[in-house]
Design a protein that fits this description.
It is a single chain. By secondary structure, this protein is of the alpha/beta class. 38% of the residues lie in helices and 22% in strands. The protein has ten helices and 15 strands. The strands form four sheets. It has a seven-stranded parallel beta sheet, sandwiched between helices. It has a three-stranded antiparallel beta sheet with strand order 1-3-2. The longest helix is centred in the N-terminal third of the chain and has 15 residues, at 4-18. The radius of gyration is 21 Å and the shape is elongated.
Length: 254
């Protein structure tokens, strides 16, 4: 008979792959009683590995409610720089690139400036104006509208109307949460979500910029589905289970 720890490891692996498990199915898979599986799930829940639901368990997903850009600038800085370094490598000379409101895009903008890249950068994030103030070949176009102070940028109907006039070769967008099982991509702010949605519609290719931790986070507003994007750029390799799920959507993984 399989040891308890082995069952626990396989239950977690199954959760990572499917997002949810049922007591009845696990009982059959492991050839043990349903009471045995319920005890396993109780132990795993106490250890913070899953959340019990009626008849089974689901993955734990977190909402950090960290809305203000200023609060996030210094967080996970090494990871953000690694993501930016990967992103800058797929930007070709002469292209028009949209950089959305994202602390990772601050790092990406710095790299574009430092490399003196011959590209057109379009953004609605105020912080990026300061980066491109010096002499460089990059051309900056700023999208205005109604100012959103927590986001440090412009969002909403006026901004969306301006974005509709463009056709971007590439767009790089930050996200709050990525649910690989439902395919939902979330943010905190409705106007932010609606603005991002228009950017995707106006882009030939769109990439999510996200630390791998965001694969288990959720925002409050679903603005897109994962297969609306071309790919996802993370700071490190995703797990085998996560890669299998991402591959089902046909996304590039960088």
């Amino acid at each position: 008979m399989m040891l308890q720890q082995e069952r626990h490891n396989q239950i977690i692996a199954k959760l990572d792959l499917e997002g949810q498990v049922r007591v009845r199915d696990l009982s059959k898979d492991f050839n043990v009683t349903e009471d045995c599986i319920r005890k396993d799930l109780t132990i795993l829940e106490k250890n913070g590995k899953l959340k019990r639901i009626h008849g089974g368990a689901t993955q734990i997903r977190t909402n950090l409610h960290r809305v203000n850009v200023g609060e996030r600038i210094g967080l996970n800085s090494p990871e953000k720089k690694l993501i930016a370094q990967k992103a800058v490598e797929i930007i070709e000379p002469g292209t028009m690139v949209f950089l959305g409101i994202s602390t990772i895009n601050i790092e990406l903008a710095k790299l574009i400036y430092q490399r003196d890249m011959n590209v057109t950068v379009v953004t609605n994030m105020i912080e990026l104006i300061n980066i491109f103030r010096g002499e460089c070949r990059a051309r900056l176009i700023f999208i205005g509208g109604e100012f959103n102070n927590p986001k440090d940028g412009f969002l909403g109907a006026i901004t969306i109307d301006q974005i509709k006039s463009y056709k971007f070769d590439l767009s790089f967008l930050g996200v709050v949460g990525i649910d690989l099982h439902s395919g939902n991509i979330t943010t905190y702010d409705i106007d932010d979500g609606l603005t991002k949605k228009q950017v995707i519609n106006s882009s030939k290719k769109s990439y999510m910029l996200a630390e791998t931790a965001k694969l288990k986070l959720d925002g409050n507003y679903v603005f897109s589905h994962i297969d609306d994007f071309t790919g996802i750029i993370c700071e490190k390799a995703v797990t085998l289970q996560q890669r299998e799920l991402i591959n089902k959507y046909g996304l590039d993984i960088l």
